[in-house]
């Protein structure tokens, strides 16, 4: 998987402006990252509370931005805040962890709601929901250390160096966690992924 | 699993990350084509990751960014207030520390400084008392001296008056006395008294 281009000229400018107190620039950063941060919170286990958690993460970023070294990329810095905040919130059990797959079957259809012709049949939807629920449970059963490394690598597309910086771990530890996390995930999903 | 499989199994994660160089990638793909176990293992890893990535997260609410900004501004104001309160608390703490230090220093150094000041005050007081005593002495001496001067002046004046006027005043008296004595002598009764009559020396 090719790593995403996390640092663009626009983002650098936005970060500099936001650091200087330009709220419009910060709001643009929120818009740029909100989907990814909500997704990270959700996949780390904060199901119904993902939006609230993401909002708190952006507020933390807002307060921390004046001390941020703008010569460095924002992504590891932001995801480090997100990771620490998620782990803290989940350990305190103050975030609802009910699966959205179970509560909201339409969520499995995702953006397909906007394209009626592509809507799955009820049978397909039921099967997909079942699969997603199984994946959801498999993900939830992974230890936090493996889950966060896998989300950062495969969902967010961060490089090993960026994950090392985000989690504050040596590169070897990051690699080991990702490799073991993949193995564990594959074992948990064996019933769904057997060729 | 053959030892050859162990070698390629260890490379599966690098293959998933796309980190194999061209030579290793060709060898890995060739091994997968000929090894059902390794191919199935690799496919299961790929498939499980695809499922993992496919979990859809909720979309941000339409007012998500606006809500974040509202809360962020409130948080910034609260943060500023807390920093302000922290500065005040630090200043108060500093004032208390300085105050305690001053009181402590005062308790220790006070007697020393007080003693020095008290001593200096005592010396000054004694000098003042001595000066006052000298002043009183001079004042007390001045009275008698002035009186003496006044007496001497009076006596001097009287002497001058007597010196100037004495002869005129004393002459009739002296002449009267002399006349009486002469008369008595002449009467023959007071010859010895006349010998004892003082002579006025002017």
What does this structure look like?
With 195 residues, chain A is mainly alpha-helical. Chain A is built from 10 helices and no strands. The longest helix of chain A is centred in the first third of the chain and has 21 residues. Chain B starts with a helix and ends in a 6-residue tail after the last helix. Helix content of chain B is 87%, strand content 0%. With 202 residues, chain B is an all-alpha fold. Among the domains of chain B are: 53 residues; 57 residues, no CATH class. Classes of the chains: A mainly alpha (195), B mainly alpha (202). At the A-B interface, α2, α3, α6, α7 and α9 of A face α3 and α4 of B.
- Major beta sheet of chain B, specifics? none
Helix content of chain A: 55-70%
Task: Name the beta content range of chain B.
Answer: under 5%
CATH homologous superfamily grouping of chain A = RNA polymerase sigma factor, region 2, helix turn helix motif
Largest sheet of chain A: none
Q: Indicate the multimeric state.
A: heterodimer
